[in-house]
Design brief:
Number of helices: 4
Strand order of the largest sheet: 4-3-2-1-5-8-10-11-12-13
Number of strands: 13
Order of helices and strands: HEEEEHEEEHEEEEEHE
Radius of gyration: 17 Å
Mean pLDDT: 93
Structural class: alpha/beta
Largest sheet: 10 strands, mixed
Shape: globular
Distance between the termini: 12 Å
């Protein structure tokens, strides 16, 4: 079973040379620490930054440099700062190649719910709705089940939706899955030490298994 850093490290393998990538709040921010060497990637933060680097070492933080989740970050040579209007102009103009988001639920059709739990106070929807409506490719980093052990990969989302039919790939503590255009979660890889049966039991939505499922390489 993967921890949060393991999920981020596996997702980093999906990043391609030359990509502009937006990292959502939570697990996705950790991806910045695991970009493979030799890959030239520009990380975008929706609060107004191109060229985000890995998290700073303890004692080297600059409180003026933060990401959209208000975590301290580093910048790389050539980084650019700008206002939110320009940032969302980039997003809505589809200049971002890949968006990596967290989620509370994903449906077998690729719908995502990640901004609100009814009855709980939220600051707002943030930029997630713009991102899922505009990105060419969306990968979700999430836990496979909730604290009660209930699946978060569902036939239909029960929480308010952020976007519909937009998620392409999911990486959880248990597995890597594609969301197929015709619907269904196709199992691609299983986490170290995790069996296919465990993944079946943790997935409420339609799970498609073809052949032997390899153990993921981290």
């Amino acid at each position: 079973m993967l921890d949060k850093n393991g999920i981020a490290k596996r997702i980093a393998r999906e990043v391609k040379d030359g990509y502009y990538v937006n990292l959502g709040i939570g697990i996705p921010t950790l991806v910045a620490n695991y970009i493979p060497q030799g890959i030239n990637v520009v990380l975008q933060s929706e609060n107004g930054l191109l060229g985000m680097g890995p998290f700073p070492f303890e004692g080297e933080e600059d409180a003026d440099l933060i990401n959209a989740g208000k975590q301290t970050i580093t910048t790389l040579p050539g980084s650019v700062f700008f206002d939110s209007a320009l940032s969302f102009g980039m997003i809505r103009a589809r200049k971002v190649n890949l968006t990596i988001l967290g989620a509370m639920e994903v449906s077998e059709n690729g719908d995502i719910a990640n901004w609100k739990i009814p009855g709980k106070m939220v600051k707002g929807m943030g930029g997630a709705m713009d991102l899922v409506a505009s990105a060419e490719n969306i990968i979700v980093a999430m836990q496979h089940v909730n604290k009660a052990g209930e699946s978060k990969l569902l036939p239909h989302c029960t929480l308010p939706l952020t976007g519909i039919k937009c998620v392409k790939k999911i990486v959880t503590e248990l597995a890597v899955l594609d969301v197929l255009p015709q619907g269904g979660f196709k199992l691609l890889e299983r986490a170290p030490g995790i069996s296919v049966e465990q993944i079946k039991n943790a997935t409420e939505g339609k799970l498609i298994i073809e052949g032997d499922i390899p153990e993921m390489v981290i």
